[in-house]
Amino acid sequence: MTEFELINRYFNRPAPSAVLGVGDDCALLAPSPGMQVAVSTDMLLEGRHFLPGTDARRLGHKSLAVNLSDLAAMGAAARWAFLAIALPAADEQWMAAFAEGLYALAGEHGVDLAGGDTTRGPLCIAITVLGEVPPGKALRRAGAGVGDDVWVSGMPGEAALGLAHLRGEVKLDAAAAAHCVARLEAPQPRLELGVRLRGLASGAIDISDGLLGDLGHVLKASGVGAQLQLALMPRSDALRAAPEALVERFQLAGGDDYELLFTAAPAHRAEIAALATGLGLPLTRIGAIVPGPPRARVLRADGREVDPGRGGFDHFASA
Amino acid sequence: MTEFELINRYFNRPAPSAVLGVGDDCALLAPSPGMQVAVSTDMLLEGRHFLPGTDARRLGHKSLAVNLSDLAAMGAAARWAFLAIALPAADEQWMAAFAEGLYALAGEHGVDLAGGDTTRGPLCIAITVLGEVPPGKALRRAGAGVGDDVWVSGMPGEAALGLAHLRGEVKLDAAAAAHCVARLEAPQPRLELGVRLRGLASGAIDISDGLLGDLGHVLKASGVGAQLQLALMPRSDALRAAPEALVERFQLAGGDDYELLFTAAPAHRAEIAALATGLGLPLTRIGAIVPGPPRARVLRADGREVDPGRGGFDHFASA
Known about the structure:
Two copies of one chain form a homodimer. Helix content of chain A is 34%, strand content 24%. By secondary structure, the first copy, chain A, is an alpha+beta fold. Chain A is globular. Chain A has ten helices and eleven strands. Chain A has helices at residues 3-9, 56-74, 92-108, 158-166, 174-185, 191-196, 211-222, 237-240, 244-253, 269-279; strands at residues 27-29, 36-45, 77-87, 112-120, 124-133, 149-153, 201-206, 225-229, 260-264, 283-290, 296-299. In chain A, the strands form two sheets. In chain A, strands 7-9-6-10-8-11 form a six-stranded mixed β-sheet. A four-stranded mixed β-sheet of chain A has the order 2-5-3-4. The longest helix of chain A is centred in the N-terminal third of the chain and has 19 residues, at 56-74. In chain A, 55% of the residues are buried. Chains A and B meet through helix 1, strand 1, strand 2, helix 2 and strand 3 of A and helix 1, strand 1, strand 2, helix 2 and strand 3 of B. Strand 2 of chain A pairs antiparallel with strand 1 (27-29) of chain B.
């Protein structure tokens, strides 16, 4: 058995929900009758999307999580994943840990890894996920209407705070550090929330590049503006303990949260509150959709506007 | 518009066969009722899967072609593609040419690019393709039966000959060089052949890593052996003009041909010959499936056996 075959073995577990899984020229899938198939693909590179030396198990988790998060933002139920990976060396221990993290998350969400490709090269992970959603029920970016509430799940900013801690830019206590680094390295795709938001949310996106940047995509697609209240942004203990200026920036422009940002008519407030309780996941109303250009204004408690600077994260930025 | 958005623009053409194409968290597809979905993903790296400096237009073509070839080997009709690409620089001219090559091939086969991801990094291209095939009609590796003929499409070995020419290991005349380099850099996925082989072929695979290596996968999956006649291997003018020892090696173990290798009962010989005529594509019977261990013996005209050495191409080989 060559090194190559050895590595491939780690991704050759049975895929019971596939007609045919790993081991032929293609996988064969039988989508549920009448369902549409949602597909997303994301590529992760060492040094750009994750720090060199990131724990392999967590990286396996995160690589799949960021893709599943796109399905969540679409309101799709996750079904299948495909992994293409380049590895600088055939490091069996690393690969076993990576596979463990990936399969554990897949198992939690009923996702089968049904195929892939392994090669030698600079560490690069490209995953494609497939999910299912009934026709007309997908959560689109283009659906936010004037007067809708703007909601966010979880505690945006924690992942960026975890990254700042790892980089030594901020010093968190042990509990907060562990919590925020886990949010960075092992985000939880909000798949159940996405499915439950069908028929409730008018627009949705996941927060991968920062809240304002991603909200901007919704506003642009919907042709509306937004007004957010900084005081309404949810704060965990970890966020409350961090320096104020950093927290604002991380909440509004920190990446890697993989929470859902969505809009919904005020008539749905009670249902959404009940959903938060049912899922044990904070869902916070942070503002409203307003007429105007596709831009989000963020107001402080005293009515002054926050200057968010550049909100998103540009992979081609010269940073 | 940032560099990143600029690059993304090249892959944002309409995808009319998708319910929703590029521009949301996921693409939305509506598979044809009752069809199964075939999925394959392949990652291509500079220096490993293609030579540095490969013409961008041809690379766009080839990146999609090698994936479509997997659908062809499955007998699936190609429908959609997803591209994840890392680029060392935001080179607009390169990207325009790459996109042109990719979209041209997609257009030829009715494939819509319905989504993707672009980032900065060492040149790396991961494409996932989706096709459709009726239940029970997919061409599997595990189906070859004792007594079946072994067939191959096209002229295996030409791509390896083109590579040898580019590397200066062999000197071809201008016409042969152009032909063989085109076979290497712009292979034609045999999609129509794959679809037409439904119900005819008992086993199939595409030749990406060399004929014997890929045949070995069919034999292993089917639990049979094979006996091939070297004299039956098809030879184009380019192959006939090259040194004999090289040609044998390239025919049996050269990679990158993306021809189909398939098995079929002798009862189908006339139909397959008619198919070759109809498609204008040589289909050559090169041997037969025999009982025994999953190994292919290749016999010379005088009955001596060719020692193929290591037939396949191992991405983790220490070469």
